[in-house]
Amino acid sequence: MAAGDSALSICSDALLLLGAAPISSFNEGTDEANVCDRLYSDIKNTTLQVYPWSFSFKKVALARTTATPVNEWTYEYQLPSDRLGPPRAVFNSSQAGARPITSWEIYGDKILTDQTTVVIDYQTTIPESAMPTWFIQLLKYQMVWHLAEPITDQVSKTDYWKNIAVGSPAENGRGGFMRTAMNIDGQGNTPQAIEDFSLIVARY
User: Are residues 111 and 162 in the same domain?
Assistant: First the structure.
């Protein structure tokens, strides 16, 4: 993990890559500090949400509210306040071997369902000190890309650093260092295999 990194150090390194001076505080009053302060949080959270990074997930059992849905569903559950986007998976059990379910719907910050137990996998924003070093590097490239035009007033630098961060337009945001980061993250996941397929069973 990148124990020494912070939002400030990431933004400062991004500025250095553009040939600008680093900042010592988001509140120092310079144009560089103001731009970083406005952009960083959104860029960080967007970068987290564009891919299911393994380090950004939590699994929690949801608390049922006292409210009753108006129609269609029986129960209402409160979603976590630190979530980024919708749940990646919803279960009706906390037992080992539980499988995801599809009988649920999101309304605002609640999940509506007929299930008496709800456990979800969801993405959350995490401190930079808990992020892998390769994701910190990705965030730096993302910041350089988005800072290039407001800091240097050169669109050519924006295009150059966008290509470094996420590749060419043809790669649909999955090229450049983004691809490297996704490959590194994928090395820690168990390869997916088909456990049961009816056509294979019927054949044999």
Answer: no
